[in-house]
Design goal:
about 160 residues, single chain, mainly alpha, elongated, 4 helices, 2 strands
Length: about 160
């Protein structure tokens, strides 16, 4: 069996480091949870962008006026906030799927930022904001608990 072949159980066979020592590393089923977290981040980024475009072009869509929000700014500012945060979340999700270590840190930070922004936006769109906060929490859990398993075997 070659060093790069995987067995049916998903275990990566022995890998030798340049110093000649042996490392045996396993991939578990939790890799799928981290991939789910990355896909959720991509989806959350798209959702933030949609909310941002709605806030920029159709502010009468929301349940309350700008005065009823937790942070008293107009919907144009909220629109740009959602667009920028959406781009960051989407990019971090793509990098997380690629197995980048820095993407785990960025994923947690932007998911926390997304949850805080949605908490402040709760009065304008309660169901949407609660759904986004729940998905942010799920992403944070998946990335912090099992993120290290997402590294590709060739990069270990």
């Amino acid at each position: 069996m070659s060093q790069t072949a995987q067995s049916a159980s998903g275990v990566v066979p022995e890998q030798r480091s340049p110093a000649g020592t042996r490392n045996v590393e396993e991939e578990t089923g939790w890799v799928g949870m981290v991939a789910f977290g990355g896909m959720m981040m991509i989806m959350l980024g798209a959702f933030h962008a949609m909310a941002g475009f709605v806030a920029l072009f159709q502010d009468e869509y929301f349940l309350v006026g700008a005065n009823g929000l937790v942070v008293n700014v107009d919907y144009t500012a909220w629109g740009w906030t959602h667009l920028i945060l959406g781009a960051l979340v989407l990019g971090a999700g793509i990098a997380l799927l690629a197995g980048q270590m820095w993407a785990r840190v960025v994923a947690v930070v932007v998911a926390m930022g997304s949850a805080i922004i949605n908490l402040a936006f709760l009065a304008a769109h309660p169901v949407w904001s609660m759904l986004m906060i729940a998905l942010d929490v799920l992403v944070i859990w998946a990335v912090t608990v099992h993120g290290s398993e997402m590294k590709a075997p060739s990069r270990r």
